[in-house]
Specification:
Blueprint (H helix, E strand, L loop, with lengths): L7 E5 L2 E8 L3 E2 L5 E2 L5 H11 L8 H11 L2 E8 L2 E8 L1 E2 L5 E6 L3 H8 L2 E7 L12 E11 L2 H10 L12 E14 L5 E5 H4 L6 H14 L5 H10 L8 E6 L2 E6 L2 E6 L7 H16 L1
Antiparallel strand pairs: 1-2, 3-4, 5-6, 5-9, 7-8, 8-11, 9-10, 10-11, 11-12, 13-14, 14-15
Length: 287
């Protein structure tokens, strides 16, 4: 689990893609009216489970963290009108939209071709004595097949084992366009969230373009930097960590089958904003 964590990247003003490393009640059209009420203990439990950065009362922010952290999900599609559920690997784009790598031969892909409406269940209840007391998020939306090398690279970085079949002709990336999310943060703590609130509404195009260069720099020193983040900032064990993804709200790390997440306090949607935010936070952490 994430602890207080701040990292610092430096960039030349003339080239923001060149990074160095410094260790330092809502009513819906369906008639439902929903509310979220988290008492103090519930907020503390949820925050500690998902991140130890300061608590946020915004269910959308908690839900988006779950979207970024989960590596697998239950995918529900329509099999000629009947519900069909399957287990899939999931990654997240920079705005947290879920990404799936699916084969045309799979039943869920055939179902999507017939009806692109889907639901994804993201489970954040691991480690809770009572699993029903933990956070989970059910997403409703549409699965859209996209031919985008950037999204494929992002998925395979998140799931290295998928690289061995990602180039097969029958495998394609699907991006889930989120319409709504049903967020449950424990018994009685329930909220319907609009998709526009769940996904991050910032222009992260410059950061997306800079991501390969940032990752190359972070991982250029035989994972020593990633090991520093994982071991010193997150309390993770072992070496061989790599940074697998960067987005406006944090960094993703992986070591074999282990993963870790560094969350930022506020979005940093551009390389310049990322630099300024992380430098400022690193200075504060050293005080």
């Amino acid at each position: 689990m994430s602890r207080g964590l701040w990292i610092t990247l430096t960039a030349r003003r003339s080239d923001p893609q060149s990074f160095g490393i410094v260790h330092c009640p809502r009513r819906h059209e369906d008639g439902f009216e929903t509310h979220l009420l988290l008492d103090g203990p519930a907020l503390a439990r949820l925050t500690l489970r998902m991140s130890e950065s300061p608590a946020r009362s915004d269910g959308a922010a908690f839900g988006r963290r779950l979207m970024r952290r989960c590596e697998q999900a239950a995918l529900a599609t329509s099999l000629r009108g009947a519900p069909y559920a399957s287990l899939v690997l999931v990654a997240a784009d920079l705005d947290a939209s879920p990404l799936l790598l699916l084969s045309d031969l799979a039943q869920h892909s055939r179902n999507i071709a017939f009806d692109p409406r889907v639901s994804l269940l993201l489970d954040g209840t691991e480690g809770h004595a009572d699993r029903l007391d933990g956070p989970r998020l059910s997403l409703l939306g549409r699965a859209e097949r996209v031919a985008d090398p950037r999204l494929l690279a992002r998925f395979t970085a998140r799931h290295p084992s998928s690289a061995r079949y990602a180039d097969f002709a029958d495998f394609h990336i699907y991006r889930i366009v989120v319409a709504r999310g049903h967020f449950v943060a424990g018994f009685g703590h329930i909220e319907w969230i609009d998709g526009a609130d769940l996904v991050l509404q910032v222009d992260a195009g410059a950061l997306a373009a800079a991501e390969p260069a940032i990752l190359a720099q972070l991982n250029a020193d035989n994972a020593k930097t990633a090991d520093f983040y994982a071991q010193r900032l997150l309390g993770c064990h072992g070496g061989g960590w790599r940074v697998t993804g960067i987005d406006p709200e944090g960094l993703d790390l992986r070591r074999e089958t282990d993963t870790a997440r560094l969350d930022f306090l506020a979005p940093a949607p551009t390389p310049e904003a990322l630099q300024a935010t992380l430098v400022r936070l690193a200075e504060k952490a050293r005080q």
